[in-house]
Amino acid sequence: MSAKRFVVGMTGASGAPYALCLLEELLRQGHEVHLVVTEAAWRVLKEEHDWDVSAREGAFRDRWRNLPGRLVHHPIKDIGASIASGSYPVDGMVVIPCSMGTLAKLAAGLSTNLLERAADVMIKEGRPLVLVPRETPLSSIHLENMLRLSRIGVKIVPAMPAFYHRPETLDDIVRFVAGKALDQMSVPHQLYRRWEGRR
Question: Per-residue pLDDT for 115 more than 80?
Fold first, then answer.
């Protein structure tokens, strides 16, 4: 499989392990990944993984320096970044996890930072955009915003693990959700065992 270029956005919803799993798989396959992390997402990384987030960019680069893919980190306020323009070719974008605040802004066509602008570019250019919301319960406002985005082609992949693949560890559940997001971007993987019918 030839290398592709993807954008990955991380917001402040709980679920950093999903993003880390997806990022690692894309880089392991040799893809180019443009990463945008919100301020709230840095807080989540610290809370859920005990990361020293003071290094910011280095926190990700050091983790996967031996993988064949290329990781490009963009500051959240860099509205002049390559991925802020529709003229910059990108094969797809996933926001994982996606907060309800970010989802609401995308549904309203608002861009207040680079992550939102990059996602808005995907929408206007008709490129694949996958959102992985992590919130429960969902209010009517949340559901209406998801419906609005779904109607224009945005893929909504809630972080809902399945159990038909008989997960044995927490990692198995994380890999399932990350794999479902990759499915929507047509990225082949073996993160979880697919259903093949009764044996």
Answer: yes
Residue-range domains of the chain with CATH: 10-184 (3.40.50.1950)
Is 100 annotated as ligand-binding? yes
Nearest alpha carbon to residue 97 among 129, 134, 128, 46: 134
φ, ψ at 155 (rounded to 5°):
-90, 125
164 is in an annotated binding site: yes
- State pLDDT tens for residues 57-109: 777 878 889 999 999 999 999 999 999 999 999 999 999 999 999 999 999 99
Buried b (16+ CB within 10 A) or exposed e, 149-178: beeeebbbbbbeeeeebebeeeebbbbbbb
CA distance 92 to 134: 20
pLDDT digits (tens, 9 = 90+) for 36-58: 999 999 999 999 988 877 777 77
Euclidean distance between the first and the last CA atom of the chain, given in angstroms as a whole number: 31
58 has binding-site annotation:
no
